[in-house]
Structures are given as C-alpha cells and as structure tokens.
Amino acid sequence: MKTILKSTFILLAFAVIFSSCGKSEKQSDGILASNAAEKVYVKPGELDEYYAFVSGGFSGQLTVYGLPSGRLLKVIPVFSVDAEKGWGFNEETKPMLNTSHGFIPWDDSHHPDISQTVGEVDGRWVFINGNNTPRIAKIDLTTFETTEIIELPNSAGNHSSSFVTENTEYIVAGTRFSVPVPQKDMPIKEYKGNFKGALSFISVEPTHGKMNLEFQILMPGFNYDLAHPGRGNSHGWFFFTTYNTEEANTLLEVNASQNDKDFIAAVNWKKAEEYIKAGKGKKMPTNYAHNVYDEETHMATSTMKKEVLVLDPSELPGLVYFLPTPKSPHGCDVDPSGEYIVGSGKLSANLTVHSFSKMLKAIEGKKFATSLYNIPVINAEDIQAGVVQQAGLGPLHTEFDDKGNAYTTFFITSEVVKWKLGTWDVVDRKPTYYSVGHLMIPGGNSRKPSGKYLLAMNKITKDRYLPTGPEVTQSAQLFDISGEKMELLLDFPTVGEPHYAAGISADKVIKNSKKYYDLSKNKHPYVVKSEAETKVVRNGKEVHVYMTSIRSHFAPDNIEGIKVGDRVYFHVTNLEQDYDVPHGFAIIGANNAELLIMPGQTETLVWEPKQVGVWPFYCSDFCSALHQEMQGYVRVSPANSAIELKWSIGE
Amino acid sequence: MKKSKLVMIVGALLTLALFVFPLWNITLEAPQYPEPLGMDIWITKITDHNPHDIKNINLMNHYIGMRDVPTDLPEFKIFPIVILVMAFLGVIVGLIGNKKLYLSWGILMILLGLAGMYDFYLWLYDYGHNLSPHAAIKIPGQGYMPPLLGSKSILNFNAISLPMTGAYFLFAGIGMSFLSYFMAKKEL
Q1: What is the CA angle A91-A94-A97, rounded to 5?
Q2: Residue ranges of chain A whose pLDDT lies below 50
Q3: At residue A32, what are phi and psi to the nearest 5 degrees?
Q4: What is the value of ipTM here, to two decimals?
Q5: Fold adopted by A519-648
Q6: How far is A554 from chain B (nearest CA, A)?
Q7: Is the pLDDT score of B184 beyond 60?
Q8: By C-alpha distance, which of A218, A183, A188, A186 is closest to A201?
Q9: Could you tell me if A254 lies within 8 Å of chain B, comparing CB atoms?
Q10: Among the four given CATH numbers 2.130.10.10, 3.90.550.10, 3.40.630.30, 3.50.50.60, the one describing domain A55-510
C-alpha cells in the first residue's frame, strides 16, 4: 500500500513538473509575442519612425505606410486614374497620363526609389517606374503628389527602373523587353541580332527636380531585368542584370533558360558623358511625352518630344562590360560600400557576388573571355568576390544593413536569409508568408542603410487573413533586424501588389510637408480669389463657371441659363487657407468623377448635362458642421431656350 | 545728468515699443487645432498670430453669427497719438527733472491704460454679444465674449487672453517713472 502511495505520489509529482514545464513554455511564447506587439505599437496620436513608400504593382499607384505600425497613410495616384481624387478625370491632371499612345489610364508601378544627396536618401522626391507603357514618375514629398511623368521611347516593359544615383544625377531605367529600334513592321522570329534593349538615363535638375531624358544606351536584344547604381568607389557605374541572352522570342521559360550564365551589364555612365561631350552620341528621331504638373497653376502640361540622344556600346569601347552571372539573374544589388555587386541567379541555389575592384583590375589588364556584339565579357573567376552556397531556392533580391550583413529573399523557399558580406556565411533565415519578392530596408539603396527594420513583400497570403473570395490581399511583413537573429513583428495587407518599396526616416520628410497651397500664389487661368469675383461665362456651347468653395458654401450656388448640349467647366477654387480642409465637388450625372480640392487649389470638372431639369451639386468631403448644407443647383433648360445666364448666392 | 532723469526719459521712450511689438494676444484652443488660432492686438492693428489665423477665426465665428475681426477701428488712430504724446511728454518731464511730474506722468499713464482696457472690454463685449440674427448656430443665453485677461471656455474653444511684449514694455515704462520718482527723492 505504501509503495503504491509512494509511486502515485511520484507520478503526480512528475505530472506537476511536466504540466508546469508546458505552462512555462507557453508563457515564454506569450512574452515573446507581446514583445513584438510592443515593438510595432505606435500609441494613438503618436507618429511612426519611418515612411515606407510601397509600390502598388498592378494598381499603378504608390502607397505610403508608417513603420513600424504598418498604418496606411495615403495612396498616391501615379499611373492609374483615381476617381477618389479626380486624378486623370479633372482637366488639370488629364495631361499627366498622356503618352505617345494617347491617354493611358492604367499602368503597373514597380520600383520606388528616393532621391539622394552624397549617397544618402534626402527625402525630396520619390521616383517610380510604369512598366507597361514605359514611364518614370516623380512624386514631390512636400505635397505627396505626382508632379512629373516622362515617357521612355525605344523601351518596352520598363522594369530595370527607376533607380537613383548617389547625388540624384540620374534616374536610370532599363527595358525588360527588347524591341526593334526604331519600331517597325518586321517578322518576330528575326528578333535575334535585330532587336535592341534601351537603357535610359534621365537627369534631375538639382533645385526644382525637373527631369530630362539625357541619353539612351542601345544594348543587345537581351532582357534587362533589374539594376542598381554603384556608390563610393563604384559611383559612376550602373549594373543591370540580364536574362534571355539567348535572344529567344518564344517560349522564354524554356528557351531563355538554356545558357548556364547570363550577364550583369556594367555600364560606365561617366564614360557615356565623356562620349557625349566628344560628340559620339547620335540624335535619333522619336516621339515621347513629357508631362509636368505646375504647383502654381495647379495644372499639368504635356509636351511631345521628338528626339533622343543614343549611344551604341558596340562602337564605343569602355562603355559597357559583361560580368557572367549564373542562371538568369534577377536582383542586382550593390552593397553600401559599393564594392560588392550581388547577382541573384533566380534558377540557381547560390548567390554570386562580384567584386568591383577586381572588375576594374580585369578591365585594366584587358583580360576578357570573349566579346558579344563587340562588348567585352570578363572572366567570371576574375571578378568573383564570393559565393553564398546553397542559401535557398529562387534568390531574388538583396538589401543590406549597417553592420555588414546582407538579406536575400528566396521566392521558391519563401524565406529571408541573412548572410555576412566577406565571409559569405549564412547567419539566419526566417520564413515569409508566402512567396516573398522584394524586401526593403530604409535607406537600402544608399551608403547608409538603417539597421532596424526589414520589410518583406509577399505575393501570396492564402490563409493569413480573413478570406475575401478568390482574390485575397498581398502583404508586407516587418522584421526586427537589430539583433543577430531576425524577428517577425508584423504582417499587414497592402494595396495591389506591394512590388518594391523605399523607406526613409520620417524626420527627413516631416519638416518639408506642406499644409496647404498658398492662395495668393495660385496662377490657375480660371482662379477666383474671392466670392466677389465669381462669375459664369458663356463661349458658344462652352460655359465656364468660376466658382469658390469655403466652409460651408459654394459661390455661386444657384446657376441658371445652362442648356442641354452645353459643355460646362466647373473651375472650383478652394478659398480655405487652413490645414486639412479640402472641399469636394460632385454633380449629378457627371461622366467623370468628383473633384477633391485642397486649400488654395483650383480644379476643373467638365459636366455635359443631357436632360432638362434642376440638378444639384454638393461638397463630397465632410468639411465642417454644415457640410450637409454645402450644396447648390444648376437649372438646365432645353437647347433652344432663351433663358439668360444668371448666377447668385444668398439671394 | 541725474540718474533719476535718465530713468524717467528711458521709461517714457520704452512706451514707443508699442509701435514695434503687439500689445495683447487672444488665442483659441480646440482639439481640432493642435496649433491654436491666435490674433495679436497692436495699438495700430490686429494681425494673424500664425498665417491666416484671423481668416480661420472668422470662418469659425460666422457659424455663431459673430462679425469678422475688425481690420479698422477708431482706436487704431487714437492709441498711437496718445502713446506718441505721452512718450513726448515723458521725455520733457524727464528733462525738466521734477519728481512730482514723474509721478503725475506715471499715474496719468495708468489712468490712460485703464481707459484703454475699458475700451477693449467694451469692444470685446460687443464682438461677443452683437450677433447676427441669421446665425446657423444659436444657443440661447450664450455669449462669445473672449476674456479680458486669463482663460475662458467658449463652446468647443478655450479662449486665452494675455498681454504680449508691447504691454510689458509699457508696464516697464510706467514702472520706471515711479522708480525715477523714488530715486529723485533719495537724490535730494
């Protein structure tokens, strides 16, 4: 009996120990989780530490998030029309979406990059590429609005874009699809040797940021996939990954995967400048749109440019070298020192790292393996800095921290792998949910990356959020990278495809952010700066309404004498000069969208009334306590009516 | 020159700072205005504390039927003359060097100041009570008069009324006239 009691007691004791073990494990899990929560918790009313500018991929826009909270702050319309903001619908912004193909209401926005001064992100502008109809846009970070879009001729699938050099000398944009240059009617199967890949260099005027397409380098007909600038010692060079060096024109998944090695093209753009100075560039007739939004007239203008300067690397020695890189490399990333160029062979298990200084030595010694289209190919062994062995499957992109580590995404194995520059040893790996593409470390494409956070952007989320039918959100995941091991902190949904992102410390941007537009500087041709100046003017079938909005009324708010068949332009000036007091303008039966007018701004909506009647308009942005009263009427008479134009308020 | 004379003259001249600095400030605080709205009252004008503040105060006030903040008041013509005359008299008094005159100048200045405050009170009362009968928001018995000095809650706003730099120069000037009186007494 005693022994039974004893053994029962011992068993009980074990049970207690085991169960308490289990408990303590669970508890420590809980502590970890709450720790992650604390790291991303930004108290109501407090501000995030970083801005993340996340591209919208097939949404065509640029989204602004705060980090570490992952709060969505703004969706900036760039390449796609946005009815919410009237972007591409109001008369002022329609020219922004003009191209050589006419008005284009959609694009695929991929790689945002922030302007730099002396190799550091400076928070003045964000640049982003439109893939489908090749364009580069500039977003002004004083207003968080798209203020310039330049179309790229001779380009197609503008993917290895839009990356910024150390002092924002150039925004560089390479073509993914090679095409006939100039375009012409020819058999597709004559691709090889006849198609060209254009690499575009767009200068940025240092004070006001005006862009100009300075020159294009017409490369062999490969696919130019991604790119990054050199920095430090390698400043003056630009590196582009290539695939389809086979120059296949059909079934690329097989035919462009045959060569064991493709190339990273190393382009010496300082040399290009020398050649241009020496008159070696050729002016080529072309046609592309350059669209500029003026902050004082609050209007965009689109200008068609007819000429581009081109350089042919097969005729200009020293301009381009090919660095053999295994298996259709995708990401092309340069470390903060500028010495290492990481090529991610997306069909390879290894990462290849080239050395810039070894590349220079090989060029000096003229040690070339061969040449292609008269462009020297350097021996792979001569430039190798190291190989990260068997790091994962499907390496795509690499970013760097401030402690000599690199972080690479692996699409197929769905993970981020941390490794050390110089030793090439893998230090840590963390899964992502799921199928990560790009990753972003604030200041990633610069000499001074931040070592605090890493944002991984996933293409697939499946079970990660509440289901929303067949289409589910894509996502971004925030990791803490301040320690030896990465720690997943947060997982948040995104707009469109979060293709790539650029991040910057918020204090560099906050101080420049505008609160409203200065009404006294408004030079819009249809501006009125007081209610006394408001009027309605008929010019044949065109009617121009010079209207104002201020809390809580429009002036005029009664308009008569409009006829069926008229084209009515409502030019609405928001007279407010206070922070965060936009007014909207919406009118029944408008075939376009609303206006959303910031304080001090003028915007124009065209309205073509088709039916006789008295039709209301109203303010669509909840502006004030009497927002509901902010409304008016337009009387529309038959086309042949003799009713005179009349407008009033308060009569 | 006796020190008391100098103190009197400098004190009289200090009042001229009212042409350089605002006299008074009224600030309106509300949760939606993390940067409060404010107007600076000078002897010659009323100005924005931050750009467009008065425009935004007027915008708020029109809902409750208050008139716009005046840009033009008769006081803006009278006050500068009074200050100029008093500063001039103060210098003369200082040059004469009569301690009784120092004291008289100081007392007269206080009386004028009190008259000014009373005038300011009347204006504030009228501004806060003389409301448009067509106001969108009418609250029976509610007045919107900002405080003469200190703070007061008016609907969603907290109104704060305080002297500004110019007023402190004025106080210092008056103070120095009294000081000069006591110094002159000792000097004898």
Answers
A1: 170
A2: 1, 11-30
A3: -60, -50
A4: 0.90
A5: Immunoglobulin-like (2.60.40)
A6: 14
A7: yes
A8: A218
A9: no
A10: 2.130.10.10
